[in-house]
Each structure stands twice: as C-alpha cells, then as structure tokens.
Amino acid sequence: MAIIERMTRMARGLAVIAVCMAAAMLGPSAAQAQQGAAAAGARGPTVTDIVVLGNQRIEPATVISYLTLKVGDPISEAALNQSVRQLYDTGLFRDAAVAVDGGKLLVQVAENPSINRINFEGNDLISDEQMLAIISSRPRRSFTRAQAEADAQALIDNYRATGRYGAVVEPVIIELPENRVDLVFEISEGDVTEIYRIDFVGNEQFSDGRLRGVIDTSESGFLGFILNSDVYDPDRLEFDKQLLRRFYLSQGFADFTVLSAVAELAPDREGFYITFTVEEGELYTFGEFEVINSAPALDPEDFQALIPEGLTGQTYDATQVEAIIEDMVYLAGQQGFAFMDVRPRARRNEAERTIDVAFELVEGPRVYVERIDIEGNDRTLDRVIRRQFEIVEGDAFNARAVEQARGRIRALGFFADVDVRTERGATDDRAVIKVEVEEQSTGSINFGLGFSSAVGPTGEISIQEANFLGRGQFARARVRVAEDSQIVDFTFEEPAFLDRDLRLGLNAFYRDEDLDDESSYEITSIGFIPSIAFPVSEPGRLRLFYEISNDDIRDLDDNVSPLIQRDEGDKLTSAIGFRYTHDLRDDPIETTSGYFLTFEQTFAGLGGDAQYSRSVVSAKGWTSFFADDVIASIELEGGAVYSTRKDLEVNERFFIGGDSLRGFAYGGIGPRDQSLGVDGKKRDDALGGDFYAVGRAEVSFPVGLPEEFGIHGGLFADVGTLWGLDDNSARDTNVDSASNGLDITVDDSAHLRAAVGASIFWDSGFGPLRLNFAIPVKKQSGDETEFFRLTVGTRF
C-alpha cells in the first residue's frame, strides 16, 4: 500500500510539472494575443468617408488631397492635428477644423479671399510695374495678411536701398462680393535719408575732419538739402572700416582697430548720426629689412636692392610694404620664376616701437589660368573687363595680379558691384577666375551755374557717357556760355587703343571770346586736337598731340595798338607737342602730401601761318601739419615762347593774372601799349609776353566752425613776372619806335610783382566756392590790380 501511495504522489507531481511547462511554452503567445486585442480596441474606427464643408472656390478633392488621413486609414489624434496643420500651410484657408462622426471625417474650412487686383498709391519714384515685380502677391491668388505684410516690408527694403529710410508702406484691403478683395499698398516715400553728422571716438592723432576725408561716407554739406545731399548706405560702413584701417596702417599705426561703426536714425527719420569708435594704438617706425631666399636659383641681393635706401627709421607704411612685394614678384617673373610668392613677415618690437620686415621668397605650387569667366556684363563688352587683367588664359596664376585686376575693374566706374574669385579648374594645377559684375548707369546730363568776378555769371550744359556703346570709351559734348565768351567742345577718348595701355583722345572746339577789356579785340577759334597718352613709368605719363586750329582776330577798337592791329584776320596754326606728367600725390583730389610735375612743349610750323615753339613747366608740392588739419603747398611755374621765322601774334603769347597771379587782373601785368592813340587818348592794351615765371605759396586751415559748414581759411603769397616781346616787334623801353614805323611805347622788362592775401573756401551746396582777397605789395605803373576774386561752380 505504501508503495502504491508513493507512486500516486509521484504521478501527481509529474502532472503538475507538465502543466507548468505547457503554461510556460504557451504563455508568450497568449500575452501577445491579449496585447493585440487591447491595441485593436485603442485604435478606434477607420476612415470610411470624408466630407468637406464650407468650401466655395476650391474643389473637395483638392481639400482632401491636403489631408494626412485618407479613406481606410485608422483615425488618431496625431493624424487629425497634422491634417489641420497641412490645411493652414497651404495658405488657402483662414480657418480649418476636422471632426469625427463614427468613421466619417468632417472637414470644415473657411477660404481666404482671392485677390481681385493690386494697386499702389503714393509711389512717385517707382512705377507700378516695378513695384509688382518686388512683391509676391498676385491677382487671382489667395490673400493672406502675413504675405501682405511681407510684401510691404519688401517694398520698404527697396526704398531703403535707395536711401529713403523714412519710407512707410501700409497694406490695406477692400472687401468685395464673392469672397474677393482688392489689395492696396498705401505708400509714403519720404525724403532721401541724409547723413546729419559723422563722429569719431578714440582718435587722438587725427582730427575728425581728417578722418572724414578718408572714408567714403560723407556728411550732407551745408545747404545739402537743396542740391548735394549724401545718403546713408549700411554696406558702405563696412567699406569705410577698411579705408580707415588702410589709412592708419599707412601712417604707422599697425595696431589700429575699428571697434564699432554705429548708425543711429534721427527722431525725424530723415537723417543718420554715424559714430566710429576706434583704437589707434602706438606709432611704429620701420626697423630692419631682410630677404629670406628659399629658391637657390635666385640672388637675394637683387631683391634686397628693391628696398628703398633710408627706409629704416621712417614711419611704418603698409602700402610701401605692398609696393616692395609687387616689385619683387615682378622681378621674379622677369627672371623666369612665375610661381614665386613673396611672403612678408612683420616682427614688432613694442619696446622700441619698430617693425622689422622680412620678405621670404617661396616658390609656390605651379598653377595656371584655365579660363576667365565674366558674368553680369549685360552692356559692357568682355574685352573691356579682360584687358584689366595682366594675365590671360594659359599664364601662370598670380593671386596679386588677380587682386590688382579687381581694383582696376572697380576703378572703371562702370559697375555698382564687382566680385572676383578663384575656383578650382579641371585639375588641381588649373584655376578658373570668376568675374561677376553689376552694371550701373554711366551716362549723365549735367547742368552747371557759376560766377566769377572776372567774367560774371556762367552757364554750362554737358552730355557725357563714360562707357560709350559698352566699349569703355568716354564721350562728352559741352556748351559753356558767359557774358563775354562762348565755348563749345566735343571730347572722345579710347582708353585702350589697339588693346594696349594707350589712351587715344580726340577733341574739337569752338571758342568765341571778347577781350575788349584786356586788349580791345575779339577772337574766334575753331580747332581739332588728336592725342595719344601712355605710361612711361609708375608715376610718369606722356601725352603726344597734334593741333590744327584757325584763329580769327576781329572787331578791333579804333584806338587799338598797332601791334594788335597788324594781327587782324584769319591765321591757321598747325602744331605738334607733348606733355609729361609725374604724379606722386597721396590723393589727386584732397592732396595732403606729395608733388606733381608737368612739362609741356608745342612746336608750330608744320604748315599753316604760325611759326613758334612754346615750353611750359610747373612743379607743385604739398605737406601737412597738425594731423593734416593744416596743409601747405608751394608751386613754381614758368613758360617761354619763341618765334622761329616771324613775329608772334598777340594770341600766341602768354597772359597771366587772375587765378594764375592773384592780386592782379587777367592780362593786368606785362608788356602794354600805353602810347597815345589816333583819338589822342592813351592806349592801355595788354600785348602779352614771351616769357613768364610765377611762384605761389599757400596754406589752408580750419577756422573753428562746425565741419558740416564746410568752411576753411587760407593765406597765400604770389610772386611773378611777364616780360619780353619777340625781336621783330616794337620792344624799346619807354621810347618811340619810329624805326619800324610804329609810334608806340612798350615796356617789356621783367619787373617783379608780388601780392599777399587771404582766402575763404566753402564747400557749399552749390559747389566749391573760393573767395580771394589780395593786396599787391609790389607792382608797376599801369598794372591792373584785383583786390577781390570770387569763383563758384557746380553740377546738379
């Protein structure tokens, strides 16, 4: 019995174990089945139908296509929300909602109105067609407030790009039947936003006025609201930062930094206050120079010779370093090393405030120009841009030559924007130069008004085109009229004749002048002057010219000098000549240092009636003091004319005075016929002179008035003389010349004249104005003096 009971208990245990194992094996499947049933219950119904409500113009199928849910899809809260978002994203509906009714999806929409038409009101400067091209809204499209606001901002941005920061644009809708609207942009264009004031903070070495002359942005001058206002351009401020840094680096301030450039709009929204905050740093001088040669084939002594002697100890000038680098790169190229790179290494000695400069000659990778691509030149011919490059396809690539070409393209003045970049070519040793330009207007019609105390009021009109037919040629026609003179001239210049650095010029002129006040006659001149100019050195340029003209001296007074009377009638002049200029000024317009030399000679006698040779030489130098606030200049000028076979005529001699010798009237000094005329009255006719010499010294300085007035003062001293008549003319001093049949008295001695005076310079809204007050301190009997002289002129 005991055995049977034991076996029964074992059987029960095995059964329990078997049931547990079966449960363990079946457990996962059962759990999955239960989870699947729970998920099915949570998923809810599927979409059996979609009904669109509230649509007017848009088809139901179009609305359904924007939904995330489709028929047969399970309905979930996330899918419903996503469908609503997609309806709003289309921009077609101002309201949208999705509801569920069993398996039916109910889509309720309210459509945005459609734009019937778009109008612009108040736009005088920009046409409706140009406005429409700026905005994105269009007729027959859906209207949205967000898009209308974006369009208004786009129009405002366009006005700001033209300097009108006070422009206001307000979008207004006019509701129409059938859920339509008219969209109206109400515009107040405002005035051009000027530059009220430019201030500098942190500048101790240079005055605000000097730095204003460095940057491109300028203040609206006094009376600028009438004629000559400047406008605010935010992009120009970045360029101004570069100009300031370049200026300070050229003046020895190697640590200079522009900390900020802030433009603050004035409360009236018609002008800006601009403030540059700078940190000048210390003044450095040049230390030692060294040439490090990494190319054994090159002689470093040749490159050391390119460093100017005496540069050590002078004020550090980054532009001089750049010039030396350019000379070294050029020399390496001349010696067959087209891929030579010159790397400057500057080492500061802060204790002694010096900068040592080492020029390392490194042979760079051999890269060639694969091609030069030019884009954006819709009007300007490709060759006008290509000739600014000293390298062409197939040449060794030179990064400095590319940068120089970029500067020359910008200097043309034909383009609003110039971008030059280098890209990889077909292989690693090939480079593609990409040039992108944006054309700008290069033609203009200019009107000018002026006044001179010598000739009275003057008027001028000119039509000019700086990029004639897109060929880079200059053409100008000009008419100038004054009380006693009329001038008409036409000028044409080809800057790259035969695709070389040869400037071909053609000038035709007509002049009619009444010289009754000076010499008792009138003269009419018609002429033609072709010329060609080319560089002979970095600062030197030579111009060769030929002149053919006809001069008609007429309408002589009854009491005119016999020396002028004999010149009456037509005379033909045929002459050749040259003019050499040597320009080492720091700035050709606002010069503060440097010098400018000219030498010109003319030889008449290649046919025609005139037989003479004329020479004129001048030299002028500038220097500045007190942070360039005070600018001093000295100028020397002289001329001589010689008759080769016959007497010189009155219009072939020199006349000085007025602006050329202040304190004396034009034609007021030099040989004069002061004998008695046929009416018994004393003649006073200026005859001109064969020789002249003039020296001028001048200093200009601020007078303490606000810079925006544009007023400066000056002091000057002029000394000069005009003398000599050709040998065959009556030239006896203070005696009657009966030997040649002329009963006249002429003094042609070289008597010195001198005058001192003061000037007022005013950069007015009408243009640069100058008032000279001069007192002759040395003169001769019979001289005509001039105490006051006013000149002013402008273009507008």
TrEMBL record:
Give the record's subunit note. Part of the Bam complex.
Q: Where in the cell is it found?
A: Cell outer membrane; Membrane
* Protein name (Swiss-Prot/TrEMBL): Outer membrane protein assembly factor BamA
Give GO terms for biological process.
Gram-negative-bacterium-type cell outer membrane assembly; protein insertion into membrane
Q: Would the keyword Ubl conjugation turn up in this protein's UniProt record?
A: no
* Record-linked HAMAP family: OM_assembly_BamA
- Position of the signal peptide: 1-33
Report the main location listed first in the record. Answer: membrane
Q: What is the lineage of its organism?
A: Bacteria, Pseudomonadati, Pseudomonadota, Alphaproteobacteria, Rhodobacterales
List, alphabetically, the GO terms of the cellular component aspect.
Answer: cell outer membrane
Please report which protein family the annotation says this sequence is part of: Belongs to the BamA family.
